[in-house]
Specification:
The protein is mainly α. The chain has 2 domains: about 1-85, no CATH class; about 95-140. The chain has helices at about 1-5, 10-20, 50-55, 60-85, 95-140, 140-145; strands spanning about 25-35, 40-45. The longest helix has about 45 residues, at about 95-140.
Length: about 150
């Protein structure tokens, strides 16, 4: 983990130790014995939540990429859940359900048409001003010197 995120191994261990001292239960220390030299080192087993908590505290390009991807996935899942909640199942064989669905969509269309009309009215007011500004901005500075 330290190598992948460009961190010093001891700093990663310190961060885990701090989390354990704070009572975060997602880490468990286990001894690991190096088969080449027979020395025993501390090793940590962590669950996914512990990993995310740890990495969210890291800085650097790889940590930032991980955080961005994590946020993007969270947002994707949230959008999917909201879409499921907002789109109740409709019985296509029930005239009342279809009528209610059609009325809902009709109201949305009317509201959007009203919004378009308002925006067109605003454009009618600002367009002459924008054209005058563009014309003024395109005039050469030479006429001012004359």
């Amino acid at each position: 983990m330290a190598d992948y995120f460009g961190k010093r191994h001891e700093h990663v261990l310190d961060a885990i130790d701090t989390m354990i001292q704070e009572g975060i239960p997602n880490f468990r220390e286990t001894p690991w014995t190096n088969p080449q030299n027979g020395q025993t080192y501390r090793e940590y087993v962590m669950d996914r939540d512990g990993f995310v908590l740890l990495v969210m505290g890291f800085t650097g390009a790889k940590a930032r990429k991980f955080k961005q991807e994590y946020i993007a996935e969270f947002n994707r899942m949230e959008t999917e859940l909201n879409a499921r909640q907002q789109a109740p199942a409709v019985n296509l064989h029930d005239a009342r359900s279809l009528r209610a669905l059609l009325l809902g969509y009709t109201e949305q269309v009317v509201a959007l048409e009203h919004k378009v009309e308002e925006q067109q009215q605003e454009l009618a007011v600002v367009t002459p001003k924008a054209l005058a500004h563009d014309k003024y901005a395109s005039v050469s500075d030479d006429w001012m010197l004359a």
